[in-house]
Amino acid sequence: MSNGPTLIGSVQRALHLLDAVGSSSRPVTAKHLARAVGVPLPTTYHLLRTLVHEGYLRKLEDGYVLGARLRPAAPEHASQRLLTHVRPILRALRDELHGAAYLALYNDGEIELVDIVDSPRTPPADLWVGAHEAGHATAFGKCILATLTPDERADYLARHRLADLTPNTITDARTLEHTLSSGGEVFDDRQEYLLGTACLGGVVHGPGMLGAVAVSLPARRYRATRAAARVIQRAAHRVSRAAAADAVTR
């Protein structure tokens, strides 16, 4: 006779799904969750529908994120909370400028790329160097660096060398400082991170948060226009408002 506890399999599977969604910084599809948890896809869909109905998960266009019932306070889940509100903004930005859209945040002294919204027609850039090592060469990195205090920027640059990624990369500290001081809240990357790719980014501000949104596209299609800058700024302001609303509801 077994002395072990009586376990309910469906509850276990639902909890495993919550763990899988919570451990991801990006929305997770049902197919990915079924594989990760080892549950048949039809059963996964049934469990997900229940979890969404009860508010433990939220279904976005491209996957599942934690729902309002959980409201995780842990720092590692902050970006996922924000994604619930920001993903539609990034999709609209992708569609309006016809390029992959990005969200980067400044966390613990590092620049982190936390989300990418792309499509078959708007593939992302080949991220061959991590965002934390290429802040000087990316549009979203420049947005963040320009908004830091002088002491914070000096600390960042002391810890990250200005790597020569392409012939267009800014590798001189004085030139970079001049660029950052003259860009306002919109910056671009004209094949500085990757040859053949250009990027345009805008600064995002929020309570206790600093980041940037950006769009990348083939350099042959890139034109630095006021219209594109206004689109980026509008998206950045929308993300900033979403971050402020998220802070109020925590």
Question: Would you kindly provide a written description of the structure presented here, covering whatever features stand out?
Answer:
There is one protein chain. This protein is of the alpha+beta class. It has two domains: 9-66, Arc Repressor Mutant, subunit A (Orthogonal Bundle), CATH 1.10.10; 75-249, Beta-Lactamase. It contains eight helices and seven strands. The strands form two sheets. Strands 4-3-7-6-5 form a five-stranded antiparallel sheet, with helices on both faces. A two-stranded antiparallel ribbon has the order 1-2. It is elongated and about 65 Å long. 36% of the residues are buried. The mean pLDDT is 86.
Which short descriptors sum up this protein?
8 helices, two-stranded antiparallel sheet, 20% strand, elongated, 2 domains, five-stranded antiparallel beta sheet, Beta-Lactamase, alpha+beta, Arc Repressor Mutant, subunit A, 7 strands, 250 residues
